Amino acid sequence: MSNLFNLKYMIILSFYFIIFLIVVFLTIHQLTGPNYVSDLSAHASSVKPFFDGSIYIPHPLWHIFVHYMTYITLDVKFSAAIVTALFVMIWICIVQKIYIFFIGKEKKNISIYSFLFIIFIIGPAYIPLFTNYIIAGTGSPNIWNNATLFTVKPFAILTVFFTILSLEKKHISYYLIGAISLFISIFAKPSFVIAFLPALILLMIFKKIYSKENLIYIAILSLISIGLLGYQFLNTFGEGKTKIIISFLGVWSNATPNVFVSILLAILFPLLYLIFNSDSVKKNNYLLLTWIMTFISIVYAAFLAEEGPRFYHGNFFWSYMVSLSLLYVFTLIDYYRNITYINSRAKLLLNIILSWQILVGLYYFIAIIMTGGDPAGIVDLSIFFK
Asked: By the 8 A CB rule, do 268 and 262 touch?
């Protein structure tokens, strides 16, 4: 019994240690490689100016952790790699706990590591004749070139999980954890909260979750979040600074031959699961919330842009990336939980699409590490179809 116990924890520790090393290597690869279109170098370079007071960063959580890690490592790039890897590990650990919460402890050893691997690696669907690129114009539940995206994901999933749990169970500790996670997420990357809050309000309206406790909770979340976002907005888009403009598909259409097809490729597995198992999805508030978030974030990406030289940076796409990550986590959990009840033909199609997206995500990840492929999405798969 003791040997089995030790073996179990050795497997767990080995799994997380491997993930840690992979992400450290990937991050250092981007920070030191000359060919990457990656945000990591820019964020790492801004740590010292931020603490010197010479620049303003609206979401400095990653930079704060990197700054204090340099007291240990004495190197900002190595600190950036360690901090990034730690945030990824924390995110995976939270996903694991949520998986066990839904699936049950008696089943957790059967499929937990395959599930975590899928969540870690899965990409969008890919059609060779449509485009040569995996990510550009399509998006993905996993993006490997943005420091603040790594940082917000643990707090985003905690917020969604404990907020829905609090609305259903009305327990004070769930309300507190959900609220604290949301407020921290604003300092990690505000892209999450601007999709989450309107989605939560719409969910409460659709499902008629109108209790006094829930209304107070959403009012507190909204007031504090709007205050924090307002401060960030004024310091980022205020007078004399970059302006937000409306440009319908102006950014998106520059990156893909067909925006509608790109959206379908990004959400293909969750969409098919919704079609084949709509009754289960309708009962799952976690999934409903992430679907509403995804629709809202698509609207942001389609209509909003920054004026001037930052127009094509696509910074209003980050809500979409966070929402996709959450959508895939809760869709796959629901799929694993209900897999024995799904029609065999539907299950076959779902497994084929899921396998394809896993292979695409795996190729994308390996291409970044081994060949210097651009983590922003320009990983050319056309060589396999010539």
From this structure: no
